[in-house]
Amino acid sequence: MTELRAVAENSKAWPFAEAREVLKRVGGKAPESGQVLFETGYGPSGLPHIGTFGEVARTSMVRHAFAQLSDLPTRLIAFSDDMDGLRKVPDNIPNREMMAEHLGKPLTAIPDPFGTHESFGHHNNARLRAFLDAFGFEYEFVSSTECYGSGRFDAALLRVLECYDEVTNVILPTLGPERRATYSPFLPVCPKTGRVLQAPVVARDTQAGTIVYEDSEGGRVETPVTGGRCKLQWKADWAMRWYALGVEYEMSGKDLIDSVRLSGRICRILGGTPPAGFTYELFLDEKGEKISKSKGNGLAVEDWLSYAPPESLALFMFQKPKAAKRLYFDVIPRTVDEYLSHLAAFPGQEPAKQIDNPAWHIHRGEPPREEAHLSYNVLLNLASVCHTEDKAVLWHFISRYRPGVTAETAPILDRLVDCAITYYRDFVKPAKAYRLPDETERKALGELADAIEALPADADAQALQTEVYEIGKRHPFPDLKSWFRALYQILLGQNEGPRMGSFIALYGRAETVGLIRRALAGEDLSA
């Protein structure tokens, strides 16, 4: 047993806890397919979103953790439910009137309103794959339409037909009286219109593999359940997929708890074993309300990536997946700095600590190493005090603070500079509000300026930080937080800010003294 495997077996990180459950489920030996199958599902009636990223990122972390515990080969499939009938026309697409003419048809049978692919489903599938590829995920794309149409699901569909009554009886208690009267796990695809029908099934023939349903005109139509002529209702479809493909692991959101339970029961009826997996919490907005795509009260992946590197988003997904978390713009700087802290700590940690470090899971065991670390908050405040959106200006200060460091030798830092400038422009700059110091603050600021000038030339950030602390203690502030808040409000025009010692070292002692003297003279620091 390798040292890494021995450490992994005792890791408390949640991906390893999940991976151990998968290993227990397969009994330590390869399934009949020869590979342990991990799955994520996607409904392509809309574009990929931050939840899509979260589910694939988290599942990939569990899969990688599994690879440290076992030599069994694995696969990850991204399954697209592209045979679903379109229920409503999305608001954010062109040619909506044309789309309205195709309601009820499978997504892969509807013309592409964007005019770039053979169908709307194919268009969104392409967007999904490009989305996942951009993050470097390792996966295999699987289409529901292809599985139904090619016969890949035929044996499982015939098994559902054999267990028709048992499957139906699982679902019926969850339905209202009207829906219960016409429910069937099978949704026939109309040969005339191509629509997926919610039609009453009046007869079935297990030997022939067919059902008979009533069409809208009262006639009776017999159709095979195989070959893409029928699709299953959602919960039966999910269970059938687990059974047909041999899925060993799939996670899902809190809103699908009942669906997981019912689909698990159906999977067992068919003769399969439901996959292992856990329920993750949903995201909340800054007011603590559930994020909704229709409300538009959440962050899109593109929003996050405008202001921070993708690794920080992966960290957000890694942290406490079973706890509800607020997802809004203000969490980005903090999450970036947490990511940088994990990255900086990794090289000096023991193997047991490294494997629990989020950076290990985010970077598949090989976090990048870069010596030139500066916090995102410090960069934001540097842009703020310089009143600049010019990258070269920020690099002037960085290069002086860290001689020899360049954009080429510190690519992580260089990316952060771009992100910080964008975040400063969109969020910090519009909200800046400077104020003048009161008498206590004036005395403390004057003393701080004198102290910075008097420090030895080689005084580092820690020495500067100590001086800031000591001056705050010597003056009658309610507490040190009040002193630091005053520094941020008076010098930076904001209520929160960086570690002052690090900021002074980066911005420059002479520049900081000049800033303080200007504030004491009552000058407009917003200019």
Helix tally equals: 24
Whole-number tally of structural domains: 4
What is the top-level CATH class of the largest domain? Answer: Alpha Beta
Helix percentage range: 40-55%
**Could you name the CATH homologous superfamily of the largest domain?**
HUPs
Find the CATH topology of the largest domain.
Rossmann fold
Strand content: 5-15%
Strand order of the largest sheet: 3-2-1-9
Q: Which ranges are low-confidence, i.e. pLDDT below 50, for 5 or more consecutive residues?
A: none
What assembly state would you assign to the polypeptide chains in this entry? single chain
- By secondary-structure content and strand pairing, the structural class works out as alpha/beta
How does this structure look, described?
With 527 residues, the protein is an alpha/beta fold. The protein has four domains: 3-280, 3-Layer(aba) Sandwich (Rossmann fold); 283-362, no CATH class; 376-431; 439-520, Arc Repressor Mutant, subunit A. Helix content is 50%, strand content 9%. It has 24 helices and 13 strands. The chain has a four-stranded parallel β-sheet with strand order 3-2-1-9. Helix 3 links the parallel strand 1 (36-42) and strand 2 (74-80). Helix 3 (50-69) crosses helix 13 and helix 10 packs across helix 11. The chain is elongated. The N and C termini lie far apart (64 Å).
Walk me through the topology.
Layout: H1 3-8, H2 14-26, E1 36-42, H3 50-69, E2 74-80, H4 96-100, H5 120-134, E3 140-143, H6 144-150, H7 154-162, H8 164-171, H9 177-182, E4 186-188, E5 201-205, E6 210-214, E7 220-224, E8 230-232, H10 234-245, E9 247-249, E10 252-253, H11 257-270, E11 279-280, E12 283-284, H12 301-307, H13 310-318, E13 325-326, H14 331-345, H15 351-354, H16 358-362, H17 376-386, H18 391-401, H19 411-431, H20 439-454, H21 461-474, H22 480-492, H23 500-507, H24 509-520
Parallel strand pairs: 1-2, 1-9, 2-3, 10-11, 12-13
Antiparallel strand pairs: 4-8, 5-6, 6-7
